[in-house]
Amino acid sequence: MTIEATTTSRPTDVLAAERAVRDYMAAVGLDVDHPTLLDTPRRVAHAGLDLYSGLGGDPAKALGGGEPIEGVYPGPVSVLEVPYSSICEHHLLPFKGVISVVYLPDRMLAGIGDFDAMIRVLAARPQMQERLADEIADTVATTLDAKGVLVLLTAEHACMWARGERTVGATARSLAARGVYDTDLAARAEARILIGL
């Protein structure tokens, strides 16, 4: 199944999810009949409804159409360090961090709360950090018809600190650029300063 297919529909069979969680727990050696674990399959299945609530969501709608600008907007807009959490599609473990966006408006502006709503839709689905940065950049560029977009995403991954070598404190960064911030080195340098690089 492709990523596109997994991000366009919501699972609705919670009972099947509960059975699958119970089977998984038993397969990895947990005593699924232990009193402290009896409710775990139900809890995990219902948590999935929240963790993957962005499946089928429309990030452009969450961002809104923007508000028209009267005249020419003088410069870039920065929305910095919006906290987020997501689930890495490789191990289904969480990653979290902050997202900063700089965009150069043409005719439309969006509110800070709109950016938060858009990020929540895109983060609430199985993700890869790099794709999340790209999807945010594409949504802002397309929805607001921005002249340029630069997205910086930082993440701490549970697959780094909760498994394997258990490396605590490592942070990964991803950068996505569109429009003039992808093609014009001077504009990109200005955006990098605004975003804190």
UniProtKB/TrEMBL annotation:
Every GTP cyclohydrolase I domain range: 18-192
Alphabetized UniProt keyword annotations: Hydrolase, One-carbon metabolism
GO annotation, cellular component aspect: cytoplasm
UniProt record, GO biological process: one-carbon metabolic process; tetrahydrobiopterin biosynthetic process; tetrahydrofolate biosynthetic process
Keyword Cytoplasm: no
Recorded metabolic or biological pathway in which this protein acts: Cofactor biosynthesis; 7,8-dihydroneopterin triphosphate biosynthesis; 7,8-dihydroneopterin triphosphate from GTP: step 1/1
Reaction(s) the record says it catalyses: GTP + H2O = 7,8-dihydroneopterin 3'-triphosphate + formate + H(+)
InterPro entries noted in UniProt: GTP-CH-I_C/QueF, GTP-CH-I_N, GTP_CycHdrlase_I, GTP_CycHdrlase_I_dom
Pfam families per UniProt: GTP_cyclohydroI (PF01227)
GO MF annotations, alphabetized: GTP binding; GTP cyclohydrolase I activity; zinc ion binding
EC number in record: 3.5.4.16
Top-level taxonomic group: Bacteria
Entry keyword Protein transport: no
Protein name as annotated: GTP cyclohydrolase 1
Organism, scientific name: Herbiconiux sp. A18JL235
This protein's encoding gene: folE
